[in-house]
Amino acid sequence: TDPSKTTLRLAADPAGIGRAAELLRRGGLVAFPTETVYGLGADAASAEAVAGVYAAKGRPRFNPLIAHVADLDAARRQGSFGADALALARAFWPGPLTLVVPAAPGCTLSDLARAGLDSVALRVPAHPVALALIAAAGRPVAAPSANRSGRISPTAADHVHADLDGRIDAVLDGGATAVGVESTILSCLGEPTLLRPGGTTRGAIEAVLGRSLADAAPGGPAIAPGMLLSHYAPRAVVRLDAEALRPGEAGLDFGGRFAGQGGAVLDLSPRRDLAEAAANLFGFLRRLDEDLGGTGAIAVAPIPPSGLGEAIRDRLARAAAQR
Ligand code: TXA
Ligand code: MG
């Protein structure tokens, strides 16, 4: 992409959404809020527009994109839903669950958006601005998170600007996102398999299916492409499950463990609420990383692995991964 585009900042009102939809229909790149994180949207049927997404993010082209659709009917025009996928879509859409299903015969998603696979990743986002944009565009919108590849996902329009200003056509500003971690990705190509923990908990999915979920074998063929890469990386070193701060470390706290230990500390949730912690996670990581000026270390207090804790711990483990 032309690195000297003028990136419009659009209010999330009917005029702004209309302008954004027009840009999408013409093959433009528009960042928009969802309930999880901001997405970088493009017309999913246009290989040229989708190529622009990969270029703006610096994203490897073997990593396919999620197509965002208005409702289950629109999803079923793109993918073939078996009984499990149908039950899950009915239970959780609109919401933070992405279903990987076989491409339908009439699928219009470009090969590039699918990275050449014969499956598709679909979701109906639970955000009024996202749904209004998809409806106004009148087509599926391919959207990865609106950050440079490998960087922390954006939960506010300012984060999108910091990463992509001058590389995309517009950002629709819908305020801070509510969930704060990306959607759960579930493969329904065979026995339902968790590819990425996220905003819909394993327990909630298992309750609908009436059985336990398989996990993707590390390195196995069912893993979501791109999920093995170091991801969500701040520039600082990240130390997990820290019992106490070491000299010079910034702290990403949970439940007040680092209280009174000095240093720069942000508490994800003083009252140990995992939904609050998920909503704060990426913004706090960005702030601590900026405060440290690209050096030093962030110590992270232990986060329980239950419920949304599984997704939070997954993102933190990626942030801490060697790179
Ligand atoms: O919450 C979210 O899911 C956000 C918002 C914007 O909707 N989107 C998001 O997209 O996180 P992205 O591109 O960062 O992650 C999409 C993941 C990738 O890891 C990709 O490998 C996987 O979905 N994926 C897409 N199509 C797939 C397919 N056919 N089979 C397996 N994995 C797939
Ligand atoms: Mg992402």
Automatic annotation (TrEMBL):
Main location class: cytoplasm
Record flagged with keyword Transmembrane helix: no
Positions annotated to bind ATP: R59, N63, A143, S145, S153, R196, Y232
BP-aspect Gene Ontology terms: regulation of translational fidelity; tRNA processing
A GO molecular-function descriptor: double-stranded RNA binding
GO cellular component, as recorded: cytoplasm
This protein's record includes keyword tRNA processing: yes
Signal peptide: none
EC assignment: 2.7.7.87
Domain of life: Bacteria
Places the protein is found: Cytoplasm
Catalyzed reactions: L-threonine + hydrogencarbonate + ATP = L-threonylcarbamoyladenylate + diphosphate + H2O
Pfam families: Sua5_C, Sua5_yciO_yrdC
Record-annotated YrdC-like domain positions: 14-200
Chain residues that bind L-threonine: T36, H68, R123, S183
Keywords recorded for this protein, A-Z: ATP-binding, Cytoplasm, Nucleotide-binding, Nucleotidyltransferase, Transferase, tRNA processing
Family recorded in the similarity comment: Belongs to the SUA5 family.
PANTHER family: SUA5 (PTHR17490), THREONYLCARBAMOYL-AMP SYNTHASE (PTHR17490:SF16)
Biological function: Required for the formation of a threonylcarbamoyl group on adenosine at position 37 (t(6)A37) in tRNAs that read codons beginning with adenine.
Name of the protein described by the UniProt record: Threonylcarbamoyl-AMP synthase
Source organism of this protein record: Lichenibacterium minor
Organism taxonomic ancestry: Bacteria, Pseudomonadati, Pseudomonadota, Alphaproteobacteria, Hyphomicrobiales
